[in-house]
Amino acid sequence: MDEPVDSVEALEDRISALRAAVRRAVLDGDADRARTLRRDLRHAEQDWDSALDAHAAKAEAGPREPQPDLDAGDESSSDWEPRGESRGGTLLPLREQVHEALSLLQVPAAPRLIATVHEAFFATSFPTARLTSLRRDEERSFKTAPFARPYYICAALAADFLSPSRGLLAISTWPMERRIIGSLSPRVDFLIAAVNVAQAIEQIPEPVPAARALLARFAANVRGSSSANSAGRPAGRIAPQSVIRAAQAELAVHQDEDRAARAEAARRAREQLDGVEQLFGAASFRRAARPLDAEDDSAAGARSPDNRAAGNRAADNEAGGHGQAIAGSGK
Amino acid sequence: MTEHPTEARLAKLRGGQPPQGYTARMIAALASNPGCARRSILDAAGVDKRRLAAYTGYPVPFGRSPFDITRGNSFEAQVKAEGAAQLLTLLRDKLSLDISEAGYTNLDEVGGSDGFPLRHERTRRLLTATPRQRGTMFDHPLLRFPVGGRYAYLEPDLVAFRHDDTFHVVEIKSFPVIDGQADPARVSAAAIQSAVYVLALRDLVGQVAEVRHEIILITPENFASRPVATSIDVRKQLGVLRRQLARLDRVEDLAAALPLSLTFDVDLDDKGVPHRSPGDLIGALTTVDASYAPECLATCEMCYFCRDEADGATGALGKSVREDLGGIEYVGRALQFARGEVPVPAEMAEAAAILRRAAVLRGEVLQAAV
């Protein structure tokens, strides 16, 4: 799914190759690989459907119709939205949909939440599996032409080692502090997201069920908001104001500590990381830290080992010397 | 690190395959049958028992279904989403956490690396930090635990810390609690698994803090996916585990007693096809003594192999039968005693008397029925 899908024939080749690979994986009894391959196969088949539809549409529109520009320069594959079109939903590329949802939340978020928010407020959803390659595509695009786009969908950084925080997406134009994830940050971000979702729902005269469900989800996990709601309101109708009040009350408890931790880590990030790393996280120090089990880690070898900060951090952490399985006396 | 003689020995037993790590489930199973040298040595060497059993002609029908695993993963992801928001709500309720106790640290990887030693070191640092610097929720901390003279790495779903200096093991399971009731077998499996975590966590934090013996089980409630928290007292399981683990023969002694040429390698070629003859492998397996009991059927991949091997032994009928027939090892012998066909040695007189009486009773009952 990495390269732009250009022709139906290429897809057909890919589909048959994938089928063979799935068969081999199943016969080998490798369930994990089979699952991944099956998913790729499904995607390829969907792309094949869409590509065929696109061809059909083109044929109907006549030969003079300009072709959709699929291979354009630094555009990544995720910008092409065959399924979005066929669903009759938004025509926006995936990255812009993600941008919309993140702009509403104003905090780094996981793909599932991003998709739910987009469904609630922008009426279209997308399979979260497609977001997994988005960050990689964005990173590639940034490396090819830095800052060529007004924004990038990038990573949130773990405060301790400034590595990309697993599973969280953010927007490159946000201040660094917002993209740092310390110990309290997940909770703080959850509360901020709750406030922002509640405020957005207040603006809508008749929120769709998906939006109300989203608010209910936040309300259930913000202490004080659901109890305020139970008085005299029909089930499922949660007052956005009660969520906002409760979330802000808890925010006041955490905010100072969280802000200090984030500011400190952000300062380190600005000092230690280069442009790409500031957006997409410090290259992992696997190579430096895992000399023992390097043989099962050939994939990491492909990553750039050139990280100045990585050396320090690895040295900081003397764990590298321990054996993975130490035989012998008790402790 | 494979320079140590025992380690090299175990690597040879395993053959060319990557080792399977110990899991809490395996330790619990091992502790339920500490006298089984076969399981001890196979687990210590990290042999893939499932593959071994299948290749010797005794495939096991159990194991987790992919649907169950997917459901388990998605339930865990759900309660841990958005900084474990759902989990925090439950824990605040159950542990009366202060509102300021909301820190969440993911220890799945450290700085982009998921290497065990590194993760364990990070876990140790975070969990033994001064109480004020300690967070509240630790997602997938990596604990280390000595089993039979070797270390096993264990990964609890979550460990929660409360400001009164107590740690709580949190176990997330996807089987439902319906109307306050859950499948007892699965609950007890979860309890013993959590007990292993409690022991490992106590080993790690030492005197720094207390690890509570009530673990918190998070499961879906009724037929929805709304999570609910239940406290389970695992003191009994802790006692059993401690006793049984102390009885576990040390792996080094076991390994030293085995012939040097012994290996359980199925000799895979580069296409994954085994070349060693199953008969040869069975010969290797029988070199190591097993202690089969019907309970093995629920926990061990080698169960069918061992059951077949134990055919005719009184132990195969269960621990209680073996104890009742103290000293009589084979069923055939027991039947002979019951029928009075052979002279009874003095040390088995008591058991033989019981057997004869049982035979008489059986005869009477059968006659009455005709």
In short:
The complex is a heterodimer of chains A (331) and B (370). Chain A is mostly helical.
Key descriptive features of the protein:
heterodimer; A: 331 residues; mainly alpha; three-stranded mixed β-sheet; 3 strands; globular; disordered N terminus; disordered C terminus; B: 370 residues; alpha/beta; seven-stranded mixed β-sheet; two-stranded antiparallel ribbon
The separation of the N and C termini of chain B measures 70 Å
Q: Low-confidence spans of chain B: pLDDT under 50, at least 5 residues?
A: none
* Shape, per Cα inertia axes of chain B: globular
What percentage of residues of chain A falls in helices of 4 or more residues?
55-70%
> Could you name the ranges of chain A where pLDDT drops below 50 across 5 or more consecutive residues?
1-5, 62-88, 227-234, 286-331
Determine the mean pLDDT of chain B. 86
Indicate the proportion of strand residues of chain A: under 5%
- The shape of chain A, in one word, is globular
Distance between the termini of chain A: 48 Å
Helix-strand string of chain A:
HHHHHHEEHEHHHHHHHH
Please tell me how large the radius of gyration of chain A is.
23 Å
DSSP summary: helix tally of chain A: 15
Radius of gyration of chain B over all CA atoms, rounded: 24 Å
Mean pLDDT of chain A: 74
For the largest interface, the chains and their residue counts are: A-B, 57 and 48 residues
Strand order of the largest sheet of chain A: 2-1-3
Strand content of chain B: 5-15%
Number of strands of chain A: 3
Instruction: Write the element-wise H/E pattern of chain B from the N-terminal end onward.
Output: HHHHHEHEEEEEHEEEHHHHHHHH
